[in-house]
Amino acid sequence: MTPRIERLKEQLDQKESFVNWFLLEEIKMKSYLETEGQPLPIRRAKMLEKLLSEMPISIEPNDLLVGTEDDIFATSYDLFKSGLEKFDGYLGYGGIYREVEGAFPQERIDKVRDFWLNEEYEKTRNSHFTPEEEAWMDEAVFFVEPVTGHVIFDAPTVLAEGYSGILARVEKKLEAEKDDEKRLFFEAVKIALNAAMAFAERYSDLAASMASSEQDAQRRQELLEISRVLKKVPSGPAQSFYEAVQSFWLTYVIMHIEQTPNPYAFSLGRVDQFLYSYYLKDKDAGKITDADAIELIQNLWVHINVGRKLWAVSQNVMIGGVHPDGSDATNELTYLILEGTEELGIPLPTITLKAHPGTPPELFDRAIKLLLKGRGQPTIINDDIVVESKVATGVSPEDGRQSVIAGCQEPLVQGAENARTTASWFSLPRCLELALNNGVSLITGKQIGLPTGTLTDYSSYEQLYEAFWKQVDFFIKRAVDCANRCDKLLAELRPVPFISAIMNDCIEKGRDFRKDGARYNFSGFLCHGLANAADSMAAVKKLVFEERRLDAGDVLDALRTNYERDPAIRLTLINQAPKYGNDDDYVDSIAAEIAERVADTVPKYKNSFGGVFRTGFSTPSTHVLYGMRCGATPDGRRDRETFAFGIGPMQGYNRNGPTALARSVTKFPHWKATHGLAFSQTLPPGTITSPEDVEKLKSFIRSYLDIGGRYIHYNVQDVETLKDAKVQPEKHRDIIVRVHGMNAYFVNLDPLIQDDIISRAEHRV
To answer: pTM for the whole thing?
Structure first.
């Protein structure tokens, strides 16, 4: 690591206070007041223009890249906030203003907060659902949200054309366009692109000004080069590796600014592909060395981390995979990215390897080397299955091969897809709870589901199974209805002219990205608690209906009393019933049937813009949230306890080792999880020490992929160290763990998320 990167990393560690996002909210408010009465697309474009012209800018000492996310994120987008009285998915918008109390006069804070909470979008969103729908979401049977973020822009086009090239296409379309709505769209995009070019000029002028007073000759030359580069890109095409990285980064920053204060999960995409030609050109010309390239990559990585906090979540980088024609896409930059990431040792970005049968063994070896460092990366995905799942939803094979992760595990086509990835969240165990208790919540005692009967009313497992699916089908329809209303609201009241300029097909269609401007338009449907539902169904089937070892009334009473009256029933359900994750077809077949049926049902529903809903089984820490809103279940889980993570088994229930576990989770076709899935394992440090151990781990991962596994990630952590880090965080500040689709410093996580990670580590296979 160069001295420059070491200093930048030290500066990162010293950043503790981030309140400038409030200034951006204030600028946005002023812009809205100035543009009142103007068409909304123009107002949004002028809002971005005012932000880019008035927000504070600076250039860090030692930095080679300009643009920062430090002023964009509010910390309240933390993936879990304990102690909330009302379930709100993630912390609601109004709560973020608590973060800046004391940093600004309270009257000033109240003015900005009240303006935005009473602006049309927030007012409409808060009255968007019926009382019954609000109750379903508060009970966490399902949850929906207006999805922002989760976009991967068309970096190759931005680097090749620059904003000026895109603007030329917009102006040509505007000149020929007769439709008033499309003309309005093009006018807004023009304002946004011109504002973005002026933003680069601001940084160029700042660098030149700093150079004029810089005493250190080397730094003065660096500042002059920064100024030169910013005069050129991203306004014009990039012609060098340095220019390409800077052009990419500033574009990435502006995307975030357009959606501040919480524009989460803008992943970076296939960095080793769209930067490769620029690297190769400079390398062949003798203008850069591999060390230079690594330093610039590391400089970029430092920028993606906002201090030491959990902010810019799920910023994924994809490496490897194939070209659109199916040939292997590994290149020299692929290896340099792994080398630079390993050396730097910070949480973000999250590296994901797109593995396929033609992946070079050397690349797989290099990925495993990084994995064993214990920083929760890289993730490994089965690229063939991802492409198969994309094609199944109407994506061309060529575009499917350009898939990248946006967020945690959700596959999107870079530059061409609006997937609304977290549009719907769904609780399978909650539906089973309602089927067991006549639609009545065990948590609140309220009638929230269909009156299908109680466990004592069913004379067979088949009747229970039918009641469970009545609840599931009922709530799937309600969830997609609510999600579609959110989609329409976001499209109408929150257009994004800048993002629309840098995504494929929006300009050609003359449509905003958030409407149906993108080439592909899908919506996500994330299912929680697959293992809990399957284990519960298997326990009731075997112990109540087949062997009759337990009485239905006694089991129902145990669930209603949270197992407190007769704990022996809980032990019987835990110990005498088969458990998913052990290669036992009795229960695995139930899990596979549930997963497949949900995966087949969800795509029958279309979103507001003609695309289908896609089923996913990834649970970005929401398995903890949803578990806290679910009553006791017949798998032995007490009320309010966490669900299982992703498609994995419940913690402590996997008893037959990793091979049995891999077989269990692949008994349903993973390509049907068209919105992705999560599968996590934990290795204690020191488990893999010899070359033979490494070969066994590689063999296991490859075998998992060969039998149809889609996704896997590892935490290499010691349980006792994690426990001590909860008690003495100051001694363990640099422990990095995989939370779900992202990495984070363990000591900065909410205690309940820490406990979940510890629990999964304790019950490793």
So the answer is: 0.95
